[in-house]
Task: inverse folding
């Protein structure tokens, strides 16, 4: 890593000068910054709009066709969008980040509006669902990296972990509330009203970035490069970084053998002999555990060893997988699934925070897209792997196997990528300047290798 790049990460962001003075960070402290609030509103609006679109599209498609194959096609359309994420990271570093968010969310807004009008006029058809799912998915992938890339410009460095954690926790709450909102709207008012409410949220997501005062302009040096050179620069940065490759490999190595969230029907039946009610309860327990895990991160701001938090959370997650696979009692299974959600959330939140803390502003888009690509690839491969292995050896044995593999992966990363376990950072209280003992310097990062 270049010395000037490292130094740029370790100095306070422009927002530092305007931060409010208070003695201790609270979970909502980041909302004191207007630009951060606008960025958060955009993300929350996008999440709810996307959830309403996907749930409504899936339910309407199945009600109209009665075909599970149609739902499979819908899933396949979403799967092929993943490679676009890498190019989206490049766009976040070479295009005005605010304009990129406005443009991509404008496409989502118009798409939701078209679905609303089609449903209102009773001309909604499966091909419209497939087309809009594909188009909005690709466009959102192009813009997804702009939001984390904008974070260092709307919040001081001392609030980075707080801001990432608040986003993660509130988005997880949104993932709980959005399906409930869908159920209420769809059952009481129908498909048109549900799409219309989604359109309103998409409109909020489109307008909020335009209200951010901080600059979204890209780095001039990055613009001067060719796109191929810029992508290569991002790849080289991630490859040579003393921490990020280990974090990404840790996520991929564990997830591909343990991804369970989309397979709760399989586990409800295979482990506990239950149907839809078991699936619903497992899903709810996992979601609430995820929120609890995100909230737990708020209390880690004084812990220097951020990398060890990730490794520790992942180790507990792996042990939880073994317990989940061996446990025959349903209510105990709910507790274990909540623990899995909590530890997974802690690891995910800290990984995102470390990406923000150790990446120069002009490279954050590309580094964030690499993280997203690794996570999405692991989720999709993991879903297929866990499903196929469960058919062969059973759901419980699959989780036990995944747990032991996860323990091995954590041990390998601990030894092979020492930068992860050595990484230290402590956030100064709001209103206090970081001194030499409170930040990781250029020499420190080089010593992590």
Result:
């Amino acid at each position: 890593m270049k010395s000037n790049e490292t130094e740029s990460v370790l100095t306070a962001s422009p927002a530092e000068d305007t931060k409010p003075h208070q003695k201790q960070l609270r979970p909502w402290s980041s909302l004191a910054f207007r630009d951060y609030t606008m960025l958060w509103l955009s993300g929350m609006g996008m999440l709810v709009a996307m959830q309403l679109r996907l749930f409504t599209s899936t339910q309407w498609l199945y009600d109209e066709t009665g075909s599970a194959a149609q739902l499979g096609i819908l899933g396949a359309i979403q799967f092929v969008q993943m490679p676009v994420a890498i190019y989206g990271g490049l766009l976040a570093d070479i295009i005005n980040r605010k304009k990129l968010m406005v443009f991509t969310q404008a496409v989502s807004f118009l798409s939701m509006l078209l679905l609303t009008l089609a449903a209102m006029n009773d001309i909604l058809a499966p091909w419209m669902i497939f087309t809009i799912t594909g188009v909005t998915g690709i466009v959102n992938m192009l813009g997804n990296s702009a939001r984390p890339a904008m974070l260092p410009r709307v919040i001081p460095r001392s609030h980075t972990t707080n801001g990432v954690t608040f986003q993660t926790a509130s988005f997880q709450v949104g993932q709980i509330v959005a399906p409930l909102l869908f159920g209420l709207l769809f059952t009481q008012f129908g498909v048109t009203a549900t799409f219309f409410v989604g359109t309103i949220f998409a409109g909020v997501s489109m307008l909020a970035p335009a209200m951010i005062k901080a600059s979204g302009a890209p780095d001039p040096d990055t613009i001067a490069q060719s796109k191929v050179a810029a992508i290569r620069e991002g790849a080289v940065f991630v490859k040579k970084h003393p921490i990020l490759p280990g974090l990404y490999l840790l996520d991929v190595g564990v997830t591909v053998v343990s991804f369970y969230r989309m397979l709760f029907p399989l586990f409800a039946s295979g482990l506990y002999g239950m149907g839809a009610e078991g699936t619903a309860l497992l899903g709810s327990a996992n979601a609430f555990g995820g929120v609890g895990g995100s909230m737990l991160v708020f209390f880690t701001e004084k812990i220097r060893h951020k990398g060890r938090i990730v490794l520790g959370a992942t180790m507990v997650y792996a042990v939880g997988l073994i317990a989940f696979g061996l446990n025959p009692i349903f209510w105990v299974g709910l507790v274990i699934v909540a623990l899995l959600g909590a530890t997974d959330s802690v690891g995910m939140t800290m990984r995102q925070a470390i990406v923000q803390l150790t990446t120069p502003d002009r490279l954050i888009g590309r580094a964030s897209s690499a993280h997203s690509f690794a996570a999405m690839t692991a989720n999709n491969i993991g879903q297929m792997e866990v499903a196929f292995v469960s058919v062969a050896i059973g759901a419980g044995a699959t989780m036990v196997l995944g747990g032991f593999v996860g323990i091995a992966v954590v041990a390998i990363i601990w030894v092979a990528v020492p930068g992860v376990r050595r990484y230290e950072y402590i956030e100064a209280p709001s209103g206090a300047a970081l001194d030499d003992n409170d930040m990781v310097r250029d020499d420190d990062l080089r010593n992590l290798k």
Notes: The longest helix spans residues 34-65. The domain at 1-8+224-449 is CATH 1.20.1250.20 (Growth Hormone; Chain: A;).
